Amino acid sequence: MEEPEHREFIQTLRSRYHAEGSVFWLTEGELGVFDADLARQVHSHNMADRPLGDRLSDVLRRRDSTRMTWDQVRAAWLGQVRALSGAATTAALDERMRAVLDARLDRDVDLVWLAHEMITRVTVPLIISGLSARAGSVIHADLIGKIRHLLVTAEPGHLDNSPLPTPALTQMRAGFAVRREIRGRARGSRPSRLDLTEPIVRDLLPDLGMDRAVDAVTSMLTAIAGPPGSAAASVIYELHRQSDWARLLRKEHLELSDEEFHTSPTRSAPTTHRFVKEVLRLWSPPVMLARVAHRETEVGEHVLHPGQLYLLSAFLIHHDPKHWPDPEAFDPDRWLPEASPSPRERPPYIPFGWAPTSCIGASLGTTQLMLLCRLLTTRYAVAPEAGGEPRMMVAAVPTPIRFRGRITQV
Hints:
This protein has one domain: CATH 1.10.630.10. The chain contains 16 helices and twelve strands. It has helices at residues 8-20, 36-47, 56-60, 70-84, 87-102, 111-127, 133-154, 167-187, 197-223, 227-241, 243-254, 258-263, 265-268, 270-282, 314-318, 362-379, and strands spanning 5-6, 23-27, 30-33, 108-110, 289-292, 297-299, 302-304, 309-312, 380-384, 391-394, 398-401, 404-409. The protein has a four-stranded mixed sheet with strand order 2-3-8-5. The protein is globular, with a radius of gyration of 22 Å. The two termini are 25 Å apart.
């Protein structure tokens, strides 16, 4: 198997990280904070109690809006995520994933594109459900446009030559579709749903106002256009590379009923859970996270001033031999209970980002990836295209390249 290829910026960054230490200025206004503890402290200090902007109607009237913070929005979402994290949701995800794969059986497909499209299609209903076919297609078009721009950046020319949609226009249409759904639920003309839009309407809309409510939901939709699909593509890539592990996963799942797996994925399929955790360690998306400093912050010997940028990278931390023995090796057994050190000595593992802005859907995302492993080792098989061994390109997100093939039914 070929070694991963790193874009020049990432390669330079890795070299500087090992030569200059874990905190250094990339440019005059960009501070790289790649020490795990300092990254956690800086991000927590900078992003805590972060206010939302004023409502557009209040801006036009030159008055202050009711103060709301992202912490309040996240708290409402976290309560709903707990309601979504059950066997019924997992079964619904399973059904939607099977539908996507069934529709592409025995066709030549770009496996990376398939991963992104599948994760997007199965996740949108968790965020906003009950949409009309037209509204759903508008939102899907917006997300597909974002993914296409990301993948063209990672591997120019690997998609077809069809024109990219106009980002501003598709984003505006998607916003209107979200607005109509929120307004309909608020007026009672549309039913309540078990999704992440519901607590926005039920609990926060009077203080948020329509503009900020739409922004909250569309920001969550945007968050699924990129990293989750990248993680799914990396899972397919490693299932292809790690044939011995794929056989172990198949054996584990053949001994499980759907009901057992849907009820408790991580408990019923511990080998698959270890496999997914190792994929997320080795190929953490995104590779780099940039944030604007909102307040003055001391970072070791450095000082961040408001308006400057700081960069975080779980990818660099997950590949640091100071934290991980043989970090470039794919080894799910490093997650065995007997291999894990005490909680204080565990290496930093941040596949879903840093609090207080870490991914609220981490458990659901893990379940999706485990479902993908289950489906691709028991019900379906991936047959990569003959010739041209796939390899990983590390760019904005880790992306397998030269990775085309067919999905067949077992």
